[in-house]
Write a structure and sequence with these properties.
Heat Shock Protein 90, two-stranded antiparallel ribbon, 3 domains, alpha+beta, 430 residues
């Protein structure tokens, strides 16, 4: 399935409107502008390639070894070619990165000149050199083959006009004596024009793909690993801070608030109901109880006590018992899980079951906890109406963000009419 406005040639080729769009002309412009660049590079390669091929044929066919002068020429020429290639490849690569925009709208970052010494030591440089040899070696051959096909097609189309010529034109392999014999070839030639347009697009798309593959700035794997480690450290530090806040609330603020609520309740018993202080005291007592309930919810939201006491499977069964619809729980967890993974999985189930109760109109739900390789897999399914869409609310989006924070992924299947399946995969690296 293609988009209405393809961003690159390979995508546009799958469109039914390919021949009616501007993409064939863009592909043709890309191929035509390749010819002078590839031609100059191929001449440079032939300076070394032609004598080398002659020497190899002489040795293979006649058993005649190459002369000392030819060997010296080939050695010096090859060394000179390799020495100049990193310098020549820099402007060529810059032009190619710019020129590929004719058939590919996705940006391709350019590399600044790193210095002469660094140029020879960079792996990206030798990727550009490899592209230089590909452009000067393979591209001309492919272009010649395509040109031959185009000329053959033009010969077939023009064969009725040449059939009366005294030179008796030959179409493909058969001589043409009359216009009647040439007309079928002309018809086939006209029918082949769309195929040639597609072939031109494929050739341009292939070259553009090679440009993106070879000339794209390589990903710094070491930097990515460091980013992943840094992200893990941040998530771990964040989780540790959450646990500290939980302990402070549970062991510090919560007992004091409980004591305050108790003292206010005792004071209400000692104050007559018709006293002027009775009503303000009752309001203060109710507010203290409300604050107590709010504090319990905050502590529960940081890390539920049931998760600490019962483990993930037990805490999920407790959530299922409290759900408004019947929930079947299946847990196959033999190994101990990292704390951050347990917490994330718990809130995934909690949010998913909350969505079932609020939106799904389901009569039944199921939760499955399994280990697959090094991942914890959490699946929550329901038989509700389906049609869940992250764009319509923040619940699923927040859930996906929570899962992504621990390097996991969330998959959602919710066709209209149901069923809805929420699958979360959490890596269990320690």
């Amino acid at each position: 399935m293609t988009t209405e406005h393809p961003s690159h040639l390979a995508e546009a080729l799958r469109s039914r409107r390919w021949l009616l769009s501007a993409w064939p002309w863009r592909a043709l412009a890309y191929l035509v502008t390749t010819v002078p660049i590839a031609g100059i590079l191929s001449v440079g390669l032939l300076v070394i390639g032609a004598p080398l091929l002659a020497a190899v044929n002489g040795l293979r066919l006649h058993g005649r070894p190459p002369s000392i002068a030819l060997l010296l020429f080939l050695a010096m020429g090859s060394l000179t070619l390799l020495a100049l290639a990193p310098i020549v490849s820099f402007p060529v690569a810059a032009v190619e990165r710019w020129r590929v925009g004719l058939v590919d709208g996705r940006p391709l970052a350019s590399s600044p000149w790193p210095g002469l010494v660094a140029r020879y030591r960079s792996a990206a440089t030798w990727r550009e050199v490899a592209y230089l040899f590909w452009l000067g070696g393979f591209a001309p051959v492919a272009y010649w083959v395509f040109l031959v096909l185009v000329l053959l097609d033009l010969g077939m189309i023009s064969s009725p006009l040449l059939a009366g010529d005294a030179n008796q034109p030959v179409v493909i392999w058969r001589p043409i004596d009359s216009t009647g014999e040439a007309i079928p070839y002309a018809i086939v030639g006209v029918l082949l024009i769309p195929a040639l347009w597609y072939a031109a697009g494929l050739l341009a798309a292939l070259q553009a793909a090679v440009v993106r593959w070879v000339l794209a700035r390589p990903v710094d794997a070491a930097a990515l690993r460091e980013v992943a480690r840094s992200r893990t450290r941040l998530v771990g530090a964040y989780e540790a801070e959450r646990r500290r806040i939980e302990r402070d609330l549970h062991d510090g603020a919560q007992p004091r608030l409980t004591s305050l609520t108790l003292q206010l309740g005792l004071a209400r018993l000692d104050v007559p109901e018709d006293s002027p202080a009775a009503r303000p005291l009752a309001v203060a007592h109710d507010q203290a109880r409300g604050l107590m309930a709010m504090l319990r919810q905050l502590v529960h939201g940081i890390r539920p006590q049931s998760l600490t006491d019962l483990g993930l499977a037990g805490a999920v069964r407790e959530l299922a018992d409290a759900a408004t619809v019947p929930v079947d729980v299946s847990a196959d967890l033999r190994d101990e899980l990292p704390e951050i993974v347990e917490t994330t999985a718990y809130f995934v189930v909690s949010e998913a079951l909350g969505n079932v109760a609020r939106h799904a109109q389901a009569t039944r739900a199921a939760v499955r906890l399994t280990r697959a390789g090094g991942d914890l897999v959490v699946e929550v399914t329901d038989d509700g109406r389906g049609g869940a869409d992250p764009a319509r609310g923040t619940g699923l989006t927040g859930l996906a963000d929570r899962v992504a924070a621990v390097d996991g992924r969330l998959l959602l299947s919710s066709p209209p009419g149901g069923p809805t399946v929420v699958r979360v995969e959490l890596p269990c690296r320690r």
